[in-house]
Amino acid sequence: MRRNRLDAATKDLDPPFAIVDLDAFDHNAADLARRAAGHPIRVASKSVRVRELVCRALERPGYAGVMCYSLAEALWLSEQNVSDDLLVAYPTADRASLQKLAANETARQRVTIMVDSVEHLDFVDAAIGPHADIRVCLELDVSWRPLPGVHIGPRRSSVHTPAQAQALAAKIVRRTGFTLVGVMAYEGQIAGLGDNPPGQPLRALGIRFIQSRSGPELVQRRAAVVGAVRQVAELEFVNGGGTGSLELTGSDPSVTELAAGSGLFGPTLFDAYQAFTPEPAALFALSVVRKPTKRVATLFAGGYIASGTPTPDRQPSPYLPAGLKTLGFEGAGEVQTPVTGKAAEQLRIGDRVWMRHAKAGELFERFDEVHLVHGDRIERTVPTYRGERRNFG
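Structure (tokenized):
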């Protein structure tokens, strides 16, 4: 029984604390590689935020490179020799980090920054002055636009068409101090939007319809974009996908690598997919501190709310013992989280309840360390980014 195993492994710890079950982590990593079908997976660090676990994934077959979420993080990971292939997934306006990048030859060889406009190039030039070549990746907007004025997908790049991509690529190639090495196209409306949200059959139908139309359009347009860009630049990589869309993106012959991170931990938002089922690997434990009624147990702390829309699916969820749920009028709180259900009847003061976060790496912004559990013992305890005094926003 998993609850007994985790309780035994952590019996000497006082909640709240966080763990990663290495058996589940390794299972998830292997399943992601299986789904990638031979494409290398770039580890999305924002969904991990534990250096030891980024390295653990990179040591596995099928994984290569890191998709960082800030330039400062990429520079730090380069200093730590985590990888020599560090792609910053979002444009940067961090002048200090740009100056460090420009001054460090090793980092310039390892780090690629993201752009989707000439303004990004102008900002870099203004921040650091004359400089040696900096590696850049062009981001493509892969939202679905079925009708004029309709935008379905994340608001990311301003580059949507092959002509726009080729025009920007040509400007980058002509620009002194920059080398265009890659294209990235993240299909958030597929990779990050589960097609089987629990208890929402109508929403599920709508999502499946969107994805069934958006997917084929994207594969065709991305291939056209890559072809257009390759006419003016030699590309080292074309990155696409996410945990939720590895099969779709891997079927696109223009893509050379995939990206994934959340699937290593299996947070609750990824329960809403039909095609795969990750094992919950990242958990946190809370203590029962009150029994206000027979069927309600109040836990200490726990209000670790995920980013995104302020909806119930962004709250953490009770996991073990099975059969618990939070209260609709109170939810997970800053100092207390009441849970109810038949299983609550057996809980006593000092018992622990295992919780799951809605998203992956965000959990570890709450803890300085994470206990890595193997079987029924703690294999070791390692710092999170926060524990290494690294806060990248």
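The chain has eleven helices and 17 strands. The longest helix spans residues 201-230.
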